[in-house]
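(Protein data)
===
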Amino acid sequence: MTVIGLVLLRALPLTLVVYSDGSLSSEGAASYGFTIHQNNIPIFDGSGRLGPAEVFDAEATGALEGLKAALNLRELATQNIFICLDNLAAATCLRGTPSESSQKVFLEFQALTTSHGAIQVRWVPGHSNIPGNEQADKLAKAASSLPEPEGAQPTLAYLRRIARQKPKEAFQAWWSASAPEQYKRLNLKQTCVYRYPPKFWPLYRYPDKWEKLSGYRYIQVDIHTAT
């Protein structure tokens, strides 16, 4: 959405404009916030904390919760409800094909837009001094201090990140403890090789032969995630 378009949108007195945002703290807490404006005046806001999740999931949840709140205020408006967020990927999924992560959230959002109509999703530029967007950002960041919901299940995006991260951490720990002294003296950084050289492909099922012939150590990492 252009700046001119946003100004015109905010000038419509009978339109509800929902600004939503997601946040991921340095400690890994995912949270969301939203604020609802009418005629350039904030009339309602909300925020919350997610379980193990990524900022993308928080963006989607913030948009859904903001829409639900706006629908409860629908008697205040006779025109459109606009959902504005600064994450283009999340906005695209809200309007089109849902992502695999937080798919239930996207599908619920789309079901609400279908059943109620007159609901539009708009991308707005982040950190551009748009009051509603800045308010949603602050609400989302503040919600990271809330307790994690009891029994919250990890999202697919979170599990994928952990699946990529754990093998690297395991390899780094092994390298720190087992790297040859000549490598330590050179202060070489560890590099995790995910594929065997082609000449050793027939041996990938035989770790002992792999180590003997290649000179590399075979490392198996088991990842256990919540279900």
About this structure: Residues 3-153 form a domain with the Nucleotidyltransferase; domain 5 fold (CATH 3.30.420.10). The chain is about 45% helix and 15% strand. The longest strand covers residues 16-24.
